[in-house]
Amino acid sequence: METIKLTLRPRDEDNSAAGYRVRLDSRDLGELEAALPAMPDSLVAALADWKAAYAVQEGVRSHFRISGVKITHHTAQDVIRLSERLQEEFNEWLNDGNKHWRELREALIPLLRRNGYGNGNGYANGNGSSYANGNGNGNSDRPLLIIDLGNDDTLKRLPWQDWKLLRQHYYYSDAAIRVLNPATALGSRPSYPQAAKIRILVIVGESDDISTDQDLAAIQQLEHDHPDTVEVISLLQPSPATLQAALEDPQGFHILVYVGHSRSDDDGNVGWLLLNQTDEISIRNFKFALSKLVRKGLQLAIFNSCDGLGLAQQLAQIDVPRCIVMKEPVPDPVAVEFLQRFFHEFATKRRSLLMAMRSARQGLEHFNLRYSEVTWLPTVCVKQNTEPLTWQLLLDQLQQEPAIPPPHPPEPRPPQISPPPGW
User: Fold this and answer.
1) I want to staple 156 with a disulfide (CB 3.0 to 4.6 A). Which of 18, 76, 177, 202 is the partner?
2) Which of 102, 107, 97 lies closest to 29 in space, CA to CA?
3) What is the secondary structure of 150-210 as a DSSP string?
4) Residue 23 in 3-state DSSP?
């Protein structure tokens, strides 16, 4: 499989006006370098305006609802117009630049179009890069696109899925964001839980004004449909002690799901979960228990809650191989339908994680008339050298329960000898 890398880095860390260094790496072309102008003020403003208007719509799972922050609501049409402005500003910026940047873009197009047709997806790499697999199922006939966006939170939040170049020439894939994780040994074999069923731990956090019961029902349906191969353990607004005990379960879990309220700090590096009415926690509060869970074979973490970039960053630090987060606050019905669609595609239709993610994300498009561009929100993040994940792979790694040996036949009883008469 060919790997194509597109890397963006600030030209001067202390001077944002200096713009970005861009490097394209490919097997056929080697390295091409160019300069991209700094994000114009109009683009930064368009992103901020859309974020502010989008996050306070009715039904959005936003931490504003629980923080007492004064908010101003906008009509759906207002938010749609702001999203259109953001898309226009974003594409104008990427269509700008000097001769070398234009040449780099032109060189990228035939690489993306190689093996022309198919469907697939992209996912962000936990070591600092975002991946896009041409067909989403790990076949080697599609190029693998890596977009390295550095550590710039504003870059991460831009709508890369709507870069016209990718939509036109790499339409079977997604653009994603970059998170950082510590360097790990290359070539290490993944571990899986020593379990006879695919084990899913669902944590239902603080749920005021949102329908987490529907999220939970969507996952419990998996156990109902596949009782021989799926086990779902659910925690409803657990205490920190209860959560830790579950994370330290000796068997471990294949998938961890959190539904409820969450938020990220302004710099996008720290995420917070509202565990219950009184406890707000971050990933680092349970880093030892989560690290043990990873070593026991955790394969995927899903945070079906708002503003999860900080969570993704922290999960990468403890070497979680893959996670799904929402880049911004997510409307309640969108969160529910996303989870339903994702598990239907991933577990029932047996599509790869990347294809399931792409299909589930694009299936949310009908919500855009009400909330505007919720299809920008779901993001897959993975660490370096993580193999493609499928439901079948999880099934193949299950441990067979030891057969119960048949009972031994009873020992023959010695014959009963009757005492002689008169005794």
Assistant:
1) 177
2) 107
3) TT-HHHHHS-GGG-HHHHHHSTTS------------TTPPP-----SSEEEEEEE---TTS
4) strand
Torsional sign, CA 180, 267, 243, 62: negative
Name 230's Cβ contacts closer than 8 Å, sequence gap at least 6. 197, 198, 200, 222, 223, 347
DSSP three-state, residue 260: coil
Give the integer Cα–Cα distance in Å for 394 and 388.
11
CB atoms within 10 A of CB 31: 10
- What is the C-alpha separation between 388 and 112, in angstroms, rounded? 20
Element (H, E) at 27: none
Distance CA(160)–CA(156), nearest Å, equals 8
Q: How many CA atoms lie within 13 A of 313 on its CB side?
A: 22
Distance CA 145, CA 174 (A): 9
H helices present in 117-163, as ranges = 153-157
Neighbouring C-beta atoms of residue 84, cutoff 10 Å: 14
Residues 131/322, Cβ–Cβ less than 8 Å: no
User: What is the rounded (10 degree) CA torsion for 281, 286, 290, 291?
Assistant: 140
For β-strands 230-236 and 198-204, DSSP reports them as parallel
pLDDT string in tens for the chain (423-residue length): 576 788 899 999 888 889 999 999 888 888 999 999 999 999 999 999 998 888 777 766 554 444 445 556 678 888 899 999 999 999 999 998 788 999 999 999 998 887 544 344 444 444 444 444 444 444 445 666 767 777 788 888 898 888 999 888 877 655 445 555 555 544 467 899 999 999 999 999 988 878 889 999 999 999 999 999 999 999 999 999 999 999 999 999 999 999 988 877 765 567 788 899 999 988 889 999 999 999 999 999 999 987 788 888 888 888 898 889 988 888 889 999 999 999 999 999 998 887 788 889 889 999 988 888 899 999 888 776 677 789 999 999 998 765 445 555 555 665 555 555 554
Measured distance CA(182)–CA(316) in Å, rounded: 8
**Element holding 39 (H helix, E strand):** none
